[in-house]
Amino acid sequence: MSSKNKLLPLYLTNFLGVFDDNLLKNLISFISIYWVAKGHESIVIMLATGFMVIPFILFSPFSGFISKKLSKQKVVIFLKIVEIFIMTFALFGFWIENIYVVLSAMFLMGLHSTFFSPAKFALVRDIGGEEKSSIGTGTVEMTTFFGVLLGTFCAGFLSDIKEHRLLWFAGTFLIVTLSGFLSALRIKANEPKALTVKIMPLNFIKFIIRKYKWSDTNVPGLNNVVLGLSLFWLVASLIQMNLLIHCPITMGLSKTQTGIIMALVAISIGAGSFLSGMIAKDKVEMGLIPIGGTGFILSLFAIYIFEPTGIFFNVLIMFAALMAGFFKTPLNAWMQVHVKGRKLGDAIAYNNMINFIFILFSALIFGFAESLSNSVFVFLIITILSLFMIVLLSFNTQGVSESFKRILKLK
What we know:
single chain; 411 residues; mainly alpha; Growth Hormone, Chain: A; 14 helices; globular
Protein backbone atom coordinates (compact mmCIF):
# COMPACT_ATOMS: atom_id res chain seq x y z
CA MET A 1 0.00 0.00 0.00
CA SER A 2 1.35 3.47 -0.93
CA SER A 3 2.12 6.00 1.81
CA LYS A 4 -0.71 8.14 0.44
CA ASN A 5 -3.25 5.36 1.03
CA LYS A 6 -1.75 4.54 4.41
CA LEU A 7 -2.37 8.13 5.51
CA LEU A 8 -6.08 8.07 4.55
CA PRO A 9 -7.33 6.66 7.91
CA LEU A 10 -5.41 9.39 9.76
CA TYR A 11 -6.87 12.08 7.50
CA LEU A 12 -10.40 10.74 8.06
CA THR A 13 -9.94 10.41 11.83
CA ASN A 14 -8.65 13.97 12.00
CA PHE A 15 -11.52 15.30 9.88
CA LEU A 16 -14.19 13.67 12.03
CA GLY A 17 -12.63 14.87 15.28
CA VAL A 18 -12.40 18.46 14.05
CA PHE A 19 -15.99 18.17 12.79
CA ASP A 20 -17.20 17.26 16.28
CA ASP A 21 -15.19 20.09 17.91
CA ASN A 22 -16.63 22.72 15.62
CA LEU A 23 -20.12 21.27 15.56
CA LEU A 24 -20.30 21.53 19.35
CA LYS A 25 -18.68 24.96 19.60
CA ASN A 26 -20.94 26.48 16.95
CA LEU A 27 -24.09 24.82 18.29
CA ILE A 28 -23.29 26.52 21.59
CA SER A 29 -22.75 29.84 19.78
CA PHE A 30 -25.94 29.53 17.70
CA ILE A 31 -28.31 28.07 20.31
CA SER A 32 -27.03 28.75 23.83
CA ILE A 33 -26.95 32.52 23.24
CA TYR A 34 -30.74 32.40 23.60
CA TRP A 35 -30.45 30.86 27.08
CA VAL A 36 -28.89 34.08 28.43
CA ALA A 37 -30.11 37.67 28.65
CA LYS A 38 -30.17 39.71 25.44
CA GLY A 39 -27.01 41.72 24.89
CA HIS A 40 -24.79 38.99 26.37
CA GLU A 41 -24.43 36.98 23.13
CA SER A 42 -20.75 37.88 22.66
CA ILE A 43 -20.01 36.60 26.18
CA VAL A 44 -21.31 33.13 25.27
CA ILE A 45 -19.15 33.11 22.12
CA MET A 46 -16.12 34.17 24.17
CA LEU A 47 -16.77 31.48 26.78
CA ALA A 48 -17.24 28.75 24.16
CA THR A 49 -13.88 29.71 22.65
CA GLY A 50 -12.22 29.97 26.05
CA PHE A 51 -13.50 26.61 27.32
CA MET A 52 -12.19 24.94 24.17
CA VAL A 53 -8.68 26.40 24.41
CA ILE A 54 -7.97 26.39 28.17
CA PRO A 55 -7.24 22.61 28.17
CA PHE A 56 -4.52 23.19 25.54
CA ILE A 57 -2.87 25.72 27.82
CA LEU A 58 -3.10 23.61 30.97
CA PHE A 59 -2.45 20.11 29.61
CA SER A 60 -0.28 20.46 26.49
CA PRO A 61 2.89 19.60 28.48
CA PHE A 62 1.30 16.34 29.59
CA SER A 63 0.05 15.58 26.07
CA GLY A 64 3.61 15.95 24.76
CA PHE A 65 4.81 13.61 27.50
CA ILE A 66 2.19 11.02 26.50
CA SER A 67 3.20 11.22 22.83
CA LYS A 68 6.77 10.31 23.79
CA LYS A 69 5.92 7.52 26.24
CA LEU A 70 2.98 5.65 24.67
CA SER A 71 1.92 4.34 21.29
CA LYS A 72 0.28 7.21 19.42
CA GLN A 73 -2.00 4.76 17.62
CA LYS A 74 -3.38 3.46 20.93
CA VAL A 75 -3.74 6.99 22.28
CA VAL A 76 -5.84 7.97 19.26
CA ILE A 77 -8.12 4.92 19.58
CA PHE A 78 -8.66 5.59 23.29
CA LEU A 79 -9.49 9.24 22.60
CA LYS A 80 -12.08 8.30 19.97
CA ILE A 81 -13.84 6.10 22.54
CA VAL A 82 -13.85 8.96 25.05
CA GLU A 83 -15.26 11.29 22.39
CA ILE A 84 -18.44 9.19 22.20
CA PHE A 85 -19.14 9.79 25.90
CA ILE A 86 -18.31 13.50 25.73
CA MET A 87 -20.74 14.16 22.87
CA THR A 88 -23.42 12.19 24.71
CA PHE A 89 -22.89 14.48 27.70
CA ALA A 90 -23.19 17.52 25.41
CA LEU A 91 -26.48 16.16 24.03
CA PHE A 92 -27.79 15.95 27.60
CA GLY A 93 -26.86 19.62 28.09
CA PHE A 94 -28.83 20.70 25.03
CA TRP A 95 -31.79 18.59 26.18
CA ILE A 96 -32.02 20.33 29.56
CA GLU A 97 -30.89 23.68 28.04
CA ASN A 98 -28.12 24.16 30.59
CA ILE A 99 -25.27 26.48 29.61
CA TYR A 100 -22.97 25.02 32.28
CA VAL A 101 -23.31 21.46 30.98
CA VAL A 102 -22.67 22.33 27.33
CA LEU A 103 -19.67 24.51 28.26
CA SER A 104 -18.33 21.64 30.40
CA ALA A 105 -18.68 19.34 27.37
CA MET A 106 -16.80 21.94 25.32
CA PHE A 107 -14.00 21.90 27.89
CA LEU A 108 -13.83 18.08 27.69
CA MET A 109 -13.70 18.18 23.88
CA GLY A 110 -10.89 20.71 24.16
CA LEU A 111 -9.07 18.34 26.53
CA HIS A 112 -9.66 15.50 24.05
CA SER A 113 -8.16 17.56 21.22
CA THR A 114 -5.19 18.56 23.39
CA PHE A 115 -4.04 14.94 23.51
CA PHE A 116 -5.01 14.18 19.91
CA SER A 117 -3.05 17.01 18.26
CA PRO A 118 0.56 15.90 19.02
CA ALA A 119 -0.34 12.33 18.05
CA LYS A 120 -1.91 13.21 14.69
CA PHE A 121 0.92 15.44 13.47
CA ALA A 122 3.66 13.06 14.61
CA LEU A 123 1.83 10.15 12.95
CA VAL A 124 2.12 11.91 9.55
CA ARG A 125 5.85 11.28 9.56
CA ASP A 126 5.56 7.84 11.19
CA ILE A 127 3.20 6.68 8.44
CA GLY A 128 4.44 8.51 5.34
CA GLY A 129 8.09 9.16 6.14
CA GLU A 130 9.93 12.49 6.23
CA GLU A 131 9.58 12.93 2.46
CA LYS A 132 5.79 13.23 2.92
CA SER A 133 6.05 15.91 5.63
CA SER A 134 5.01 18.88 3.45
CA ILE A 135 2.23 17.24 1.45
CA GLY A 136 1.13 15.16 4.48
CA THR A 137 0.98 18.21 6.74
CA GLY A 138 -0.82 20.19 4.05
CA THR A 139 -3.40 17.43 3.65
CA VAL A 140 -3.92 17.17 7.42
CA GLU A 141 -4.49 20.93 7.43
CA MET A 142 -6.92 20.56 4.54
CA THR A 143 -8.92 17.86 6.35
CA THR A 144 -8.81 19.98 9.49
CA PHE A 145 -10.42 22.91 7.77
CA PHE A 146 -12.89 20.71 5.93
CA GLY A 147 -13.87 19.47 9.39
CA VAL A 148 -14.29 23.08 10.46
CA LEU A 149 -16.28 23.66 7.28
CA LEU A 150 -18.81 20.87 7.66
CA GLY A 151 -18.98 21.15 11.45
CA THR A 152 -19.78 24.86 11.17
CA PHE A 153 -22.27 24.42 8.32
CA CYS A 154 -23.97 21.51 10.07
CA ALA A 155 -24.27 23.56 13.28
CA GLY A 156 -25.99 26.38 11.40
CA PHE A 157 -28.32 23.95 9.63
CA LEU A 158 -29.23 22.02 12.79
CA SER A 159 -29.80 25.26 14.71
CA ASP A 160 -32.50 26.33 12.25
CA ILE A 161 -34.42 23.04 12.63
CA LYS A 162 -37.55 23.51 14.73
CA GLU A 163 -39.05 20.01 15.01
CA HIS A 164 -37.26 17.03 16.59
CA ARG A 165 -34.01 19.00 16.76
CA LEU A 166 -32.56 16.90 19.59
CA LEU A 167 -33.06 13.74 17.54
CA TRP A 168 -31.09 15.33 14.71
CA PHE A 169 -28.37 16.23 17.21
CA ALA A 170 -28.27 12.68 18.54
CA GLY A 171 -28.10 11.10 15.09
CA THR A 172 -25.32 13.41 13.95
CA PHE A 173 -23.26 12.91 17.14
CA LEU A 174 -23.62 9.13 16.91
CA ILE A 175 -22.67 8.82 13.24
CA VAL A 176 -19.63 11.10 13.51
CA THR A 177 -18.19 9.66 16.74
CA LEU A 178 -18.60 6.02 15.71
CA SER A 179 -17.12 6.71 12.28
CA GLY A 180 -14.14 8.40 13.94
CA PHE A 181 -13.56 5.38 16.15
CA LEU A 182 -13.71 2.95 13.19
CA SER A 183 -11.29 5.05 11.12
CA ALA A 184 -8.86 5.25 14.07
CA LEU A 185 -8.75 1.45 14.19
CA ARG A 186 -7.33 1.42 10.64
CA ILE A 187 -4.33 3.67 11.40
CA LYS A 188 -1.06 1.78 11.01
CA ALA A 189 2.29 3.44 11.70
CA ASN A 190 5.94 2.58 12.15
CA GLU A 191 6.53 4.55 15.34
CA PRO A 192 10.01 5.34 16.75
CA LYS A 193 11.00 3.68 19.99
CA ALA A 194 9.36 5.31 23.01
CA LEU A 195 11.56 7.59 25.10
CA THR A 196 12.29 6.74 28.73
CA VAL A 197 11.08 10.04 30.17
CA LYS A 198 10.37 9.85 33.90
CA ILE A 199 9.32 13.40 34.80
CA MET A 200 5.76 14.36 33.89
CA PRO A 201 5.68 18.08 32.95
CA LEU A 202 2.49 19.36 34.59
CA ASN A 203 3.48 23.00 35.26
CA PHE A 204 2.70 24.74 31.97
CA ILE A 205 4.71 27.88 32.84
CA LYS A 206 7.88 25.89 33.52
CA PHE A 207 7.13 23.82 30.41
CA ILE A 208 6.99 26.94 28.23
CA ILE A 209 10.24 28.33 29.65
CA ARG A 210 12.01 24.97 29.32
CA LYS A 211 10.81 24.37 25.74
CA TYR A 212 11.64 27.92 24.69
CA LYS A 213 15.22 27.47 25.89
CA TRP A 214 15.44 23.98 24.38
CA SER A 215 14.15 25.24 21.02
CA ASP A 216 16.54 28.18 20.98
CA THR A 217 19.52 25.87 21.60
CA ASN A 218 18.61 22.71 19.69
CA VAL A 219 16.28 23.82 16.88
CA PRO A 220 17.19 27.40 15.88
CA GLY A 221 14.20 29.06 14.27
CA LEU A 222 11.56 26.93 16.00
CA ASN A 223 10.49 29.72 18.37
CA ASN A 224 9.85 32.04 15.42
CA VAL A 225 7.77 29.34 13.74
CA VAL A 226 5.73 28.81 16.91
CA LEU A 227 5.19 32.57 17.20
CA GLY A 228 4.06 32.70 13.57
CA LEU A 229 1.56 29.89 14.02
CA SER A 230 0.28 31.48 17.23
CA LEU A 231 -0.28 34.83 15.54
CA PHE A 232 -2.10 33.03 12.72
CA TRP A 233 -4.48 31.39 15.18
CA LEU A 234 -5.04 34.68 16.97
CA VAL A 235 -6.30 36.41 13.81
CA ALA A 236 -8.15 33.28 12.59
CA SER A 237 -9.99 33.02 15.90
CA LEU A 238 -10.88 36.73 15.74
CA ILE A 239 -12.32 36.27 12.26
CA GLN A 240 -14.39 33.26 13.30
CA MET A 241 -15.84 35.00 16.36
CA ASN A 242 -16.47 38.19 14.42
CA LEU A 243 -18.37 36.35 11.66
CA LEU A 244 -20.76 35.00 14.30
CA ILE A 245 -21.71 38.62 15.04
CA HIS A 246 -21.11 40.31 11.67
CA CYS A 247 -23.15 37.91 9.51
CA PRO A 248 -26.42 37.76 11.51
CA ILE A 249 -26.42 41.26 13.03
CA THR A 250 -24.62 43.54 10.54
CA MET A 251 -25.59 41.62 7.37
CA GLY A 252 -28.91 40.21 8.62
CA LEU A 253 -28.21 36.59 7.64
CA SER A 254 -29.81 33.44 9.10
CA LYS A 255 -27.86 30.84 11.11
CA THR A 256 -27.71 28.54 8.10
CA GLN A 257 -26.40 31.35 5.87
CA THR A 258 -23.86 32.32 8.53
CA GLY A 259 -22.79 28.68 8.73
CA ILE A 260 -22.38 28.57 4.94
CA ILE A 261 -20.09 31.62 4.94
CA MET A 262 -17.99 30.19 7.76
CA ALA A 263 -17.85 26.89 5.90
CA LEU A 264 -16.67 28.67 2.74
CA VAL A 265 -13.91 30.27 4.82
CA ALA A 266 -12.86 26.84 6.04
CA ILE A 267 -12.89 25.46 2.47
CA SER A 268 -10.67 28.29 1.35
CA ILE A 269 -8.14 27.82 4.16
CA GLY A 270 -8.07 24.09 3.49
CA ALA A 271 -7.60 24.67 -0.23
CA GLY A 272 -4.81 27.16 0.46
CA SER A 273 -3.11 24.68 2.79
CA PHE A 274 -3.32 21.92 0.19
CA LEU A 275 -2.14 24.12 -2.68
CA SER A 276 0.81 25.39 -0.69
CA GLY A 277 1.79 21.77 0.00
CA MET A 278 1.53 21.01 -3.73
CA ILE A 279 3.67 24.05 -4.62
CA ALA A 280 6.31 23.09 -2.04
CA LYS A 281 6.31 19.38 -3.06
CA ASP A 282 9.33 17.91 -1.25
CA LYS A 283 10.61 21.28 0.00
CA VAL A 284 9.60 23.67 2.78
CA GLU A 285 8.83 26.93 0.95
CA MET A 286 8.92 29.67 3.58
CA GLY A 287 8.61 32.23 0.77
CA LEU A 288 4.88 31.51 0.73
CA ILE A 289 4.59 33.46 4.01
CA PRO A 290 4.87 37.01 2.55
CA ILE A 291 2.86 35.98 -0.54
CA GLY A 292 -0.05 34.60 1.47
CA GLY A 293 0.20 37.32 4.10
CA THR A 294 -0.04 40.16 1.59
CA GLY A 295 -3.20 38.77 0.00
CA PHE A 296 -4.69 38.14 3.45
CA ILE A 297 -4.09 41.72 4.63
CA LEU A 298 -5.39 43.40 1.46
CA SER A 299 -8.61 41.35 1.52
CA LEU A 300 -9.41 42.15 5.15
CA PHE A 301 -8.61 45.84 4.69
CA ALA A 302 -10.99 45.94 1.70
CA ILE A 303 -13.77 44.53 3.92
CA TYR A 304 -13.17 47.34 6.41
CA ILE A 305 -13.04 50.09 3.77
CA PHE A 306 -15.95 49.05 1.54
CA GLU A 307 -18.16 47.23 4.10
CA PRO A 308 -19.33 44.85 1.35
CA THR A 309 -22.32 42.54 1.45
CA GLY A 310 -23.44 39.59 -0.66
CA ILE A 311 -21.10 38.11 -3.25
CA PHE A 312 -18.46 40.84 -2.86
CA PHE A 313 -18.10 40.05 0.85
CA ASN A 314 -17.97 36.29 0.17
CA VAL A 315 -15.22 36.72 -2.45
CA LEU A 316 -13.09 38.90 -0.18
CA ILE A 317 -13.38 36.70 2.92
CA MET A 318 -12.75 33.52 0.90
CA PHE A 319 -9.66 35.00 -0.78
CA ALA A 320 -8.33 36.09 2.62
CA ALA A 321 -8.83 32.55 3.91
CA LEU A 322 -7.12 31.04 0.84
CA MET A 323 -4.08 33.24 1.44
CA ALA A 324 -4.10 32.28 5.12
CA GLY A 325 -3.63 28.64 4.10
CA PHE A 326 -0.61 29.64 1.99
CA PHE A 327 0.85 31.36 5.03
CA LYS A 328 0.27 28.64 7.60
CA THR A 329 1.32 25.34 5.99
CA PRO A 330 5.04 26.16 5.45
CA LEU A 331 5.36 26.83 9.17
CA ASN A 332 3.88 23.42 10.07
CA ALA A 333 6.01 21.67 7.47
CA TRP A 334 9.16 23.39 8.77
CA MET A 335 8.49 21.91 12.19
CA GLN A 336 7.97 18.42 10.75
CA VAL A 337 11.33 18.50 8.95
CA HIS A 338 13.52 20.20 11.55
CA VAL A 339 12.37 18.52 14.79
CA LYS A 340 13.59 14.93 14.76
CA GLY A 341 12.31 11.69 16.31
CA ARG A 342 10.00 11.56 19.31
CA LYS A 343 10.87 15.16 20.17
CA LEU A 344 8.39 16.23 17.50
CA GLY A 345 5.44 15.36 19.76
CA ASP A 346 6.86 17.56 22.50
CA ALA A 347 7.48 20.41 20.04
CA ILE A 348 3.89 20.17 18.79
CA ALA A 349 2.62 20.23 22.38
CA TYR A 350 4.72 23.37 23.00
CA ASN A 351 3.36 24.89 19.79
CA ASN A 352 -0.23 24.02 20.75
CA MET A 353 0.14 25.65 24.14
CA ILE A 354 1.42 28.94 22.73
CA ASN A 355 -1.19 28.82 19.93
CA PHE A 356 -4.05 28.49 22.37
CA ILE A 357 -2.72 31.14 24.73
CA PHE A 358 -2.97 33.47 21.73
CA ILE A 359 -6.47 32.17 20.91
CA LEU A 360 -7.55 32.85 24.49
CA PHE A 361 -6.06 36.32 24.11
CA SER A 362 -8.07 36.74 20.88
CA ALA A 363 -11.30 36.20 22.84
CA LEU A 364 -10.33 39.09 25.12
CA ILE A 365 -9.46 41.30 22.12
CA PHE A 366 -12.79 40.42 20.52
CA GLY A 367 -14.77 41.33 23.61
CA PHE A 368 -12.88 44.61 24.00
CA ALA A 369 -13.19 45.58 20.32
CA GLU A 370 -16.91 44.74 20.22
CA SER A 371 -17.52 46.88 23.30
CA LEU A 372 -15.76 49.85 21.64
CA SER A 373 -17.47 49.71 18.26
CA ASN A 374 -18.92 47.06 15.93
CA SER A 375 -17.96 44.03 13.85
CA VAL A 376 -16.65 46.21 10.98
CA PHE A 377 -14.16 47.83 13.36
CA VAL A 378 -12.98 44.37 14.42
CA PHE A 379 -11.90 43.72 10.80
CA LEU A 380 -9.61 46.77 11.06
CA ILE A 381 -8.11 45.40 14.28
CA ILE A 382 -7.50 42.06 12.55
CA THR A 383 -5.85 43.82 9.58
CA ILE A 384 -3.44 45.72 11.83
CA LEU A 385 -2.52 42.59 13.78
CA SER A 386 -2.00 40.67 10.53
CA LEU A 387 0.30 43.35 9.13
CA PHE A 388 2.43 43.13 12.26
CA MET A 389 2.47 39.32 11.96
CA ILE A 390 3.59 39.24 8.32
CA VAL A 391 6.30 41.88 8.69
CA LEU A 392 7.70 40.19 11.80
CA LEU A 393 7.87 36.75 10.21
CA SER A 394 9.09 37.85 6.78
CA PHE A 395 12.15 39.55 8.26
CA ASN A 396 12.87 37.23 11.19
CA THR A 397 12.24 33.70 9.89
CA GLN A 398 15.08 31.68 8.37
CA GLY A 399 14.81 30.89 4.65
CA VAL A 400 11.97 33.27 3.73
CA SER A 401 13.97 35.48 1.36
CA GLU A 402 15.65 32.61 -0.56
CA SER A 403 12.40 30.67 -0.88
CA PHE A 404 10.48 33.79 -1.99
CA LYS A 405 12.97 34.38 -4.82
CA ARG A 406 12.84 30.72 -5.81
CA ILE A 407 9.04 30.69 -6.00
CA LEU A 408 9.02 33.83 -8.17
CA LYS A 409 11.91 32.34 -10.20
CA LEU A 410 14.12 35.29 -9.36
CA LYS A 411 16.89 32.96 -8.25
